Amino acid sequence: MDDNGIKAAARKALMAADPLYHSWPADQQERFRATMDEAASNRVDAVLLGEVLGISCTTENARDIWRGLPLEKLEHLNWAKLLTAGIGEDMIWLNESMAEHVSLLSFDTLRDYDFDDYLFQEKVNGREIEDYQKRDYYALRFPRWARLLIEGKLYYATLSSLATYITNQLKEQGQDLIQRLVPHEYVHGKNHGKQEKDGVLWDLQIDAGGLEPQLDELKQQWYQYLQQRWTELSKSFICQPPAAFMKDTSEYGEANYLFLFNNSAALERTRWRYFLSDCRQIEGAFSEVEQQLDQAWKLAEKWLQEAHQNILQNFDPAVTKLRKKRKIVVAPGAFDSLLRPDGDDEW
């Protein structure tokens, strides 16, 4: 389906959502797209399935059919769907759950949304975690996923803070280094695949050639290091001029874009309804991100190697740390290929 066909499908779907849609002023149309109720959304889905994929369905089963489609069938559908749900110049849509009567239009800037979510998370954590230590606010502790149009085409976007991006990259590189420092693999435990009530047990154990306690200690210390580095990096970026770093990360035929923001001031400068144009106003060279990541990894690599040597020399594996054991039960059929006791699995 070409671009015009996708746009035509979206126009027809919006008319099915409300026959008067195309007679409304632009701000009313945008509000309707952002706050569409489930019944109207189901009508949209039914029309899009018919127009884009030729699938005949009803409003009652459209959502289930959509969810059951393979990934390769979704690109044009998601593009058309974005035209029925996005806001602003770029038809941006945030892939996050929101409270009742709250939409992306409830927040002018990225910081408005992010700080509101921070307050919510702090409230929940304070209520549910005993002796919870309140966290200070820093930009985008957790990445967000969005869809938007860039030069008229659908892109899947990741929105992250610079500190979160760097520590996530360190985490991946650190896992590779830990594997080299303490070679290990996952093997089936004695209870793997056993029946447990309405499912089967997921029991994988780490085999590190007898160094399992040392490996566990190294991983625990590495986790704590990453948490500390995230806070340190976030603090160090506060006084920098607000900046957004952008990179096209498309691969395997899927259009993806990465947006990194160095601090809350950058989030404050970025309005949802003018997302791309505001990002470009404060855009920094992505080479700066790569330089900072390189510097951070040199420090992290040195730390990991020293921590590894210290554990091998001084850690007492006979001292067992108390931890709450968890049992994972998998629904029948969910991972049949992973539970086969045929010895062909690779972990």
Give the CA-based shape.
globular
Compressed to H and E, one letter per element, the order equals: HHHHHEHEEHEEEEHEEHHEHEH
Indicate the mean pLDDT: 91
How many E-type strands? 11
Structural class estimated from helices and strands? alpha+beta
Major β-sheet, in short?
6 strands, mixed
Strand content: 5-15%
Approximate helicity band: 40-55%
Q: What separation lies between the terminal Cα atoms? A: 40 Å
Number of helices: 12
Radius of gyration: 24 Å
Reading side by side through the largest sheet, how are the strands ordered? 1-2-3-9-8-10
Low-confidence stretches: 337-347
Task: Describe, in plain words, how this protein is organized in 3D.
Helix 3 (about 40-55) packs antiparallel against helix 5. Strand 2 (about 145-150) and strand 3 form a beta hairpin. It contains twelve helices and eleven strands. The chain has about 350 residues and is an alpha+beta fold. The chain is globular, with a radius of gyration of 24 Å. Strands 1-2-3-9-8-10 form a six-stranded mixed β-sheet. Strands 5-6-11 form a three-stranded antiparallel β-sheet, with no helix packed on it.
